[in-house]
Amino acid sequence: MSNRINGLAIVAAVAGAALLSACEPPPVNSVQRGYRGTGMVEVYRPAAVAAAATLNAPPAPSAAASPDGPRASQVFKNVKVLGDLSAGEFAQIMVDMTAWVAPQQGCTYCHAATDFADDSLYTKVVSRRMLQMTQHINADWKTHVAETGVTCYTCHRGNNVPANVWFRSAEAAKMPGMLGNKAGQNAPAVQVGLTSLPNDPFSSFIGANEEIRVVAPAALPTKGDHPSMIKQTEATYGLMMHMSKSLGVNCTYCHNTRSFASWDSSTPQRATAYYGIRMTRDLNSAYLAPLAGVFPANRLGPTGDVPKLNCATCHQGAYKPLYGADILKGHPGLTGGVKVAAAASAPG
Ligand code: HEC
Ligand code: HEC
Ligand code: HEC
Ligand code: HEC
Questions:
Q1: Residue ranges lining ligand 4, Cβ < 6 Å
Q2: pLDDT in tens, 8-33
Q3: How far, CA to CA in Å, does 272 sit from each of 146, 253, 319?
């Protein structure tokens, strides 16, 4: 009898705890991030933190190569990006790229086994562009990636195709206002945190440069002022859910929810995120979209577009990818600082 009562009490206690913690299974922890009274509290579940930690462990560092000796451009036949590296550094980055992108397949994922100078595999052509993209991120987007930077591993994590990419949804490609176009709503999707918000906030906001706005610039905005403000509002919240989920944080990591639009009461992280949005747009339009003719059909989306990046491609549940580990050290080919390294090792 008393066993049964105990059992019921436990069930009731567990159910009560679940209700109080907004349907998240306990335990749930919270940390105050803003001034007292601003409600800027970060709520997190240890289980989710542990899962993100496993996914975001940094890769094993590779053995350092000597910067001395002849340049790769002198030793090899068809080197267009990494020519200023020493032959040793060049060999090292080939080994690293294999571990980061094609650990199962090895060198021949990108190379014809009979001739390493040959460019017939699309994977090699894509990789050359990926090398340039990585250098561009590390050299020109320090407003977002700071000195931490990225390597191929930041996005690929040992996979041929990064775990998080997006395509234009078939509905976003339809004419607006067409009958039966739900704009991706009411179809809960992982990328917007399983809400019924528009599930493709990416095409307009990070595939193109549409304004990310909820607060109208004028009272009673008209179509001329601001095209379809309500649609924009819904998609803005969809994108914000994606950003929070990708970083494993709450809205208050960046906003004081008293006023989402106000920059004065936002955290410094919101400014970093602002540049992250611009960087992601730049990478999608300047690097990935132009590869449309290079990718085989089986890699393209339902409307024929290339796979593209969003915040989750790099972040994968962590506020900084790989928790900000110092992964660029010893990889001169990825910093865009190759020429400096070569000059420093020249006999003088
Ligand atoms: C993920 C793709 C990828 C993998 C895997 C890869 N490579 Fe490469 N490799 C490239 C790219 C891209 C270039 C051209 C670099 C440039 O243009 O600066 C290249 C060039 C080379 C060259 C120069 C050939 C020449 O004469 O022009 C050699 C040698 C080479 N790789 C060796 C290797 C070895 C050995 C492995 C395995 C340990 C390997 N690569 C794995 C992408 C790859
Ligand atoms: C900012 C994220 C990011 C970085 C950094 C990055 N990649 Fe990629 N990579 C992508 C995306 C997105 C795709 C497209 C995915 C697809 O093919 O479906 C891709 C595709 C590829 C592919 C084609 C794979 C296939 O099977 O179709 C290769 C090869 C590749 N990357 C190599 C590299 C190499 C080598 C580096 C480092 C020099 C690198 N990537 C750095 C995001 C990245
Ligand atoms: C990682 C930082 C970050 C997180 C987390 C975040 N936001 Fe944002 N939010 C931004 C940035 C940056 C902008 C401005 C975008 C721009 O102008 O390009 C913005 C804009 C907005 C706007 C539009 C304000 C206006 O000017 O009309 C709203 C509303 C908003 N966020 C709500 C949310 C909500 C709700 C959440 C949680 C689900 C959230 N945000 C999570 C960074 C963030
Ligand atoms: C190319 C990879 C990449 C992409 C894509 C990317 N980030 Fe980042 N992000 C980074 C790196 C690397 C850092 C760490 C910088 C540092 O160490 O300060 C970072 C840091 C941040 C920070 C600062 C966190 C803190 O606590 O200081 C925020 C916020 C952020 N990113 C938001 C975003 C948002 C939002 C997006 C999508 C619109 C995004 N990022 C897309 C690589 C990326």
A1: 137, 144-146, 148, 150, 154, 243, 247, 269, 272-273, 276-277, 280, 309, 311, 313-315, 319-321, 324
A2: 566 555 554 544 445 566 777 888 87
A3: 10, 11, 11
